[in-house]
Every structure is written in C-alpha cells, then in structure tokens.
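Entry 14. Structure prediction run on the chain below.
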Amino acid sequence: MVRLNDQTREEYTNNVLQALYNQDGQLFRETFLELHPTDQKEIFLSLGMRERTYIYQYITPSEFAEIFQGLEVNEQKQCVLELEETYAAEMFNNMYADDVAAFLGEIKNIKAEKILSAMDTKDAASVKELLAYSPGTAGAIMTKEFIAIKATDTASDVIEQLREEGPDAETIYYLYVIDMEHVLVGVVSIRDLIIAPSTEIIKNIMSTRVVSVSVTDDQEEVTKMIRKYDFLAAPVITVNGKLVGIITVDDVMDVVEEETEEDFGEISAARGSLDTTISSFTAAKKRAPWIIMLMFLGLITAEVIGQFEETLEAYILLAVFIPLIMDSAGNTGTQALAVVVRGLAVGTVDRSSFGKMLKREFGTGIMLGIMCAITLFIIVPIMHGSFMLAGIVGVSLFLTLSIATMVGATIPLLINKLKIDPAVASGPFITTINDILGLLIYFSIATALLQYIPQH
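Output returned:
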C-alpha cells in the first residue's frame, strides 16, 4: 500500500479534499503541494468545476503548470476554458516550450495566437519556433530548456551556472558544450562535472564524440536512436551543427505511445477512431473505408466458395472445415504481421535482415502446419471416420499456414520498402487475403481428390 509519512495515500488524499471543501487555503496548500504531481492531477480530475475554481485560487500558476502538463489534451482544453486569461498566460510561461507547443498544436490557430500574444515575448518565441517545424520531426518535439556551456569554462563556473539555470532546465544530467557560433562540440555528464577538480577546464573533461539528431529527423528514428544508446536526452542540431534543443526520454515515451496507438489503429483497421471521446458517427466515418474494402474482399471469398459449389454438393462434410481453414490462415498471417511490424518499429529488422526474417517466418509456418496437420490426421478419422478427409484437410492446412506466414511477413516488408508505414498492412486485410488463399488451396485439393473420398 502506498504511504506518505504515517498515512496511506487514501487517508492523505481525504485530508487534502477535506481542506479544500472547508475552503482552508493554507492547509490545502500545505497538504496538496506535498503530493507527487501525478497524485495532484488525479485529485484535480476527481473534482467538479466549483472545487477546481478553489484550486486556481489556492495555488499559483507556476505550481498549477505541473498539473496541467500531465493532463490529456481534451482535459487541458476544458481547463483553459475555466482559467482567467492572466492566470493561463502565467501558467504557460512556466511550462516547458515543447509542452506548450504540443497543446497549441491541438487547438484552433486563432485561440493559439491569443495565448501566444499573452505570454512573455521570450517564452512565446521559443514556442513559435517549435510550432514552425513539421509535425512528427525532432524539431517539433524537442524542448528549448537545456543547459549549454562553453569549452573554456571551468567546472566551478559550470556548477554556478547550474545553480542559476538548472531550475528552469528540463534535465541537467547532460550538459552540452558549444562554441562561439553555438555549434555543438561536446557533451559533459553531471557525474563527470561533479568529480572533476573545480579548476578543471571543460574542454579537458568533455566527450567530443556526441551522438545527435537533426531537427528534420523523423520522431520514430529519434526514439530508435535514444533506445539504442539508452540516453536520457539527445541534442538536436541544425544542418550547420548549431544546437537548438534537446529531446528527453519523457518526450520519447510520448512518441512511443503516439506511434503505438497509430500502429494499433492501422493494424486493426480502426485508425483515427481509437479515441473514446469521439462520437459514434465520427468513429463510423473513420472506420467505414476499411470496412467497405474488406466487404468487397469478403465478396471474393464468397465467390471462391461459389466456384466450388459442385465439390461441396458432392461431399457436404467439406463445409465443416471451412471456418477452421479460414481462421487458422488469418490468425497465422496476423501473427507474422505483428512480428514484422514490431521488428521494423523497434529497428531489429532492416533491409539486411529481410531475407533472414522471411526464411524464419516461412520455417515457422511450415512447423505450425506440420503440427496442425498431424493433429488433424488423428482427430478427423475419429470424428468423421475418413482418413482421406483427414489427409485433404491436413495437407490443405499445412500449405495454407506455410503460405499465410509468408503473406503476413512479406506484405509489410514490401510496404516498408515503398517508404510507407508498414502498419497500414492491417490485420483484417491480411486475414481476408489469407482466407481467400486458404480456401483456394483447400477446395483445389478437395476437388482433385474428391473421387477418392468414400461417400456416405
């Protein structure tokens, strides 16, 4: 159980709420501000508009900025409507530029301009700079609050600079060294700085092998790089090498969540409709294109079955295994799709390993097919008394699973080669394609061997 001093979290929260309901501003501040910002946010979201008004009165805009940054976009929009203009402007002045830019990017331009005009000129300029970069790039998600030092500084000079600028920086674990033209030339960790003699020159303790990203790099590439090097932050530079910002690990986590949601939407053919706050009509409108396309593919599946009507009429028991063939093909293909899309997303699959990946998935499909076929060779004769039927279904499933894994693995690789997000190779699409192939294989084998099946 989570505890704060000698109280449980629930007990402490009740004390905070009681102080708020009693309109005891001093006691509320003393108890509320001791909580972690996440707990503060949860309490804030549990309140009605009247109680939230008291919070705006009892805590300062800079203190509320911590809470605001943790809210979802829709919650932030509602919150801004409740705040006085001067309070909101001061709050935005005390937020990190990237968080302000992320919020303004989600609202109408007129409202965003109004907020920017109310902010301090310097803070507004930093936000405008971030908004100028293309969405999804390193420049758009970087923060401007970082510590830049000079190679000629001493360790004691930098420590003094940290005391002054550190409270406003998003992170101080890495200090970036620049020259007179603001070009990035090195990096110093806070650990190296602390253990260095106070008179040591930064040039002597900095690392000149700095891993950085460009302002135009795609945000997914940035997340891969930070994950690869296990960084807490990475510097962002222009084409001329000038340091303009940093991307922290919490920014990367936001990107990963965003990209994961986007990929999940693509794979499930529900892109744009995962937001539970949108209306039924909006959700249906976003899903409709995929559903209609899959409906037409479903008609092809029905046509395949129709083409083998005589085979089905001659041996109706074949129809019993249609769902088995279709489900197995779809499930296996979707599994292969998920493996490849994830590999492409995290960087474990690249062009040099495409052949290895396809070979592995094909081998996996063969092994799965063999195991399923052996199972059917045992079960079908017991249930239906026909070894020939078991052979038809078993061989069909073996070939289907072998091909289905290749389809599920190949399509996202081909899409990725065309510079398109491989997640668009959605699960329902792969499933339907494999359904059609599975049925063609099944009925072709059944038609060819129909004369050998004993008639009942």
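The CA atoms of residues 6 and 12 lie 9 Å apart.
Filed with the rest of this week's runs.
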